Amino acid sequence: MDSERLSATFVELADSLVDEFDVIEFLHLLTIRCTQLLDVTAAGVLLADPSGQLRVMAASSEQVRLLELFQVQNDQGPCLDCYRSGRPVRVTELAAARSRWPRFADQARERGFGAVQALPMRLRREVIGALNLFSDPPGLDASDTQIAQALADVATIGLLQHRAQRRADDVAVQLQTALNSRVRIEQAKGVLAERLNVDMDQAFSILRGHARSQRRHLSELAQAVVNGGVDPASFTATAD
Prior knowledge:
The protein is α+β, with helices and mostly antiparallel strands. The protein folds into two domains: 3-165, Beta-Lactamase (2-Layer Sandwich), CATH 3.30.450.40; 177-234, Winged helix-like DNA-binding domain superfamily/Winged helix DNA-binding domain (Arc Repressor Mutant, subunit A, Orthogonal Bundle), CATH 1.10.10. Helices cover 55% and strands 15% of the residues. The chain has a five-stranded antiparallel β-sheet with strand order 2-1-5-4-3, with helices on both faces. Helix 1 (3-16) packs antiparallel against helix 2, helix 2 runs antiparallel to helix 6 (142-165) and helix 7 packs across helix 8 (200-214). The radius of gyration is 17 Å and the shape is globular. The mean pLDDT is 87.
């Protein structure tokens, strides 16, 4: 583990926690840095909505986003167990987890994932979601697990602080706004994928890169793409 790169990541996450920060962009950054820093192939974040139902908020790739959606829709998987118990869930071999999560285990293995670890996003007794990390067996070692939990903790504190600053009675509105933003982003990804003849992962990378270069909120730019206010032909590919 590169200690300088790890320190830089914590600084980067902290620097993202500014007034009116973009929740979707912040969580996507978390998933990308997890795949870069840890021995994992993919990462996803699920947060609870005001009714307590988990929603997919960010993923390091389109493939894992669809797997996370499958997990929620079928009401089975490590992230759900982690959120409900408030405790980490570690599976070193998904093939042995079919009795626990038959549909999820099969879907995960079909997508090339052999191990999974779900970490709670919690502060004391309040659990707001979970971070899912996918890898080859046997999964993360103890050191990487501690780092992953620390990253999840930083993200949790940031989200809760953001909510507190906007007053407790605005929490439900904020989360609903984030959920609506996620829908707009998915729609914009579809538009860009079709117009630019790229896959969904590339479409998101292009959308995100354009938002950064134009210093616009990701959800605002996505809305403009969906509404036809921005020509997809003007977008250029960028990397995370």
